[in-house]
Amino acid sequence: MKKILVTRKLLKSNEDRVSKIFDTKLNLNDELYSQKKLIELSKGCDGILSSLTDKLDEQTINQLSNTTKIISNFAVGFGNIDLEAAKKRKIAVTNTPDVLTDATAEITMLLILGAARRASEGIEHAKKSNWKWSADFLIGKQLTGARLGILGMGRIGRAVAKLARAFGMIIHYHNRSKLSSKLEMGAIYHDNIKSLFSVSDILSINCPATKETENIINAESLEYFPTGAIITNSARGDMIDDEAMINALSRRKIYALGLDVYKGEPKLNPGYLNIKDVFILPHLGSATKQTRTAMANLAINNLDEFFKTGRCKNKVN
Ligand code: GLV
User: Fold this and answer.
1) pLDDT confidence of 262, banded at 50, 70, 90?
2) Each residue of 47-98: pLDDT tens digit?
3) Coil/strand/helix, residue 72
4) Pick the CATH number of 101-280 from 3.90.930.50, 3.20.20.140, 3.90.950.20, 3.40.50.720
5) SS3 helix, strand, coil % of the chain, rounded to 5?
6) How many Å apart are CA 295 and CA 4, to the nearest integer?
7) Which of 52, 206, 234 to mutate for ligand 1's pocket (most ligand atoms within 8 Å of CB)?
8) Domain covering 3-99+288-309 assigned CATH 3.40.50.720 in the classification
9) Choosing from 265, 292, 305, 311, which is the catalytic residue?
10) Rounded distance, CA 185 to CA 239, Å?
11) CA-CA distance, 187 to 184, in Å (whole number)?
């Protein structure tokens, strides 16, 4: 039986399943393992079922046990893992695409609605019972007819587009390559971010974190937006230069911001806390029972497929 280090606590049904198929080292107290501890615990393990909170950088990967042949990440994103370092050590890295697409698109709509309709301020007033209805109380921005720019039109971007169409939004997008018209479903392609941002009443960030997308929202690119635009990020915090964003919010270049992800999570730039038009969530994109169960099952299947066949369709390195 292959031995697997499971770095974080999974839902009960998933822990039962992974323990049936493999000889597991579970993390029953859901401790956040240090890199040193991950290295130590990898000893004798054939694989690691990791999570986005495990920082598997080059140094850590180089010290993992020689027995470790696969890191199955319990996430669609894999910015927490140095893919090249893993490849050099002949360690396969896999992810969990598709199964979290709808849940993440749903949370994106929550961010868009929360930012556009001033939900953070509304919640504060409602909790304090210090509000009085009036014709101009907490007036926000309506989605109907608004132009939604989608940065990254992969599976999640396209699922956001589908939901946003139901709200009457007009979809624009930028992607490394133009989609087929079947996948575009009428969305308007922009071959550069300046062109996309300049027509985005609302921008939804749905691209992966890469060297090219790091700080793609910065002091210069924020100026491309129409004044009063809304930005949401349900992908990774790396894409936003926080200081530039806080500055743009404070001078109302950007009307509101919706965030589910942050640079250096769980910390966020404290500058955001002083701005009332920021709607924030603690990385809940895939947080439904259905989706988390499916993600862990896929991470387990990836391990199983790899050990049975020597490959895996969800290998990313
Ligand atoms: C969640 O953020 C994921 O990448 O799965």
Assistant:
1) very high
2) 999 999 999 999 999 999 999 999 999 999 999 999 999 999 999 999 999 9
3) strand
4) 3.40.50.720
5) 40, 15, 45
6) 17
7) 52
8) yes
9) 265
10) 26
11) 5
Q: Find the DSSP H helices in 70-192.
A: 83-88, 101-116, 119-128, 155-166, 181-184
Tokens of residue 313, six digits: 């369709």
Q: Examine the residue annotation and report whether 283 is marked as an active-site residue of this protein.
A: yes
Closest residue to atom 3 of ligand 1, CA basis: 75
Give the per-residue pLDDT at 290: 98
Residue 104 tokens, joined: 């993440």
Rounded Cα gap, residues 5 and 38, in angstroms:
9
Look at the block and give the residue holding tokens 């009960």. 12
Tens digits of per-residue pLDDT, 177-225? 999 999 999 999 999 999 999 999 999 999 999 999 999 999 999 999 9
Question: CA-CA distance, 40 to 70, in Å (whole number)?
Answer: 16
Find, among 40, 92, 51, the residue nearest to 70 by Cα: 92
Contact 101, 159 (CB under 8 A): yes
Structural tokens at position 70? 């696969």
**Is 172 part of the annotated catalytic residue set?**
no
First-residue to last-residue Cα distance in the chain: 25
Angstrom CA distances, 67 to 20, 46, 54, stand at 21, 5, 19
**Average pLDDT taken over every residue of the chain:** 97
